[in-house]
Amino acid sequence: LITPGAGGEPVQVIATVNGTPYRLLAESYSRERRFRDTRINVRGRGISALLDVPYSPSVNHGNVLARTAQQLMGDVLTVNGVNFGWDVDWQLTDWLVPGGAWSHQGSYMSALLEIAGAAGGYIQPHDTAQTVRALRRYPSAPWDWGALTPDFELPSAAVSVEGIEWQRRATYDRIFVSGVGAGIRGNVKRAGTAGMLVAPGVTHPLITGLEAARQRGIAELSNTGLQAQINLRLPVLPETGVIK
């Protein structure tokens, strides 16, 4: 059942954990036989692996005409202008990219990561659908967390493993982020500070709008100072599913 197809494409399977489904690629497998026991071990990844090597070709990406960053992501997931079955759930603040400002060579996923990373974002695949989500790494800046209402409150009994590791990074309250060619230069300062502690600058060809500069600046300044890296391991509860 998990033998690859004639073209070498991996078989897709669905694993369901306490009612939460995952669509996966059965990429490799091995067989082990012992006395009175035969075992098949299957390894794989989520279906978004199809957008990366070795399944994706190395393609030249770019924009001849002015496009928004969200439109660029949609263009990446096309061949000759026709979508090949993948969608984008865009949750960043969009910005305009002038024609000819961007070029990239690589897999489909590397191009998606390049676009999201320009604004300090990242890509999160959907569990089952052919959808990639473009998300902010810091939906709210850490210095604003004290005023937020939590999405979930976890009793300690629901957490099987809880770990915390303190890390200290250099503290900054200002950063200059710049584009290339058609890009802009953004001066991003944390509100309420003197802005005297300037972080090393960041350059990216897709920083072509104030929205991109601001999002990238917030992401860079958020990853500074004293940090608590918290690791929580939970069972897959039917009431919550997987908490992203």
Protein model, in words:
It is built from three helices and 17 strands. The protein is mainly beta. Strands 1-2-3 form a three-stranded antiparallel sheet, with no helix packed on it. Helix 1 (69-76) runs antiparallel to helix 2 (108-118). It is globular, with a radius of gyration of 22 Å. The two termini are 31 Å apart.
DSSP helix fraction: 10-25%
Poorly predicted tracts of residues? none
Distance N to C terminus: 31 Å
- Quickly give the structural class: mainly beta
Number of strands: 17
SSE series: EEEEEHEEEEEHEEEEEEHE
Large-scale geometry: globular
Topology readout:
Layout: E1 11-17, E2 20-34, E3 37-46, E4 59-62, E5 67-68, H1 69-76, E6 78-79, E7 82-83, E8 87-90, E9 96-97, E10 103-106, H2 108-118, E11 121-125, E12 131-136, E13 161-168, E14 174-178, E15 185-189, E16 202-203, H3 210-222, E17 226-233
Parallel strand pairs: 8-12, 14-16
Antiparallel strand pairs: 1-2, 2-3, 4-10, 5-9, 6-7, 11-12, 13-17, 14-15
Helix pairs in contact: 1-2
Name a few traits of the molecule.
single chain; 244 residues; mainly beta; 3-stranded mixed sheet; 3 helices; 17 strands; 13% helix; 37% strand
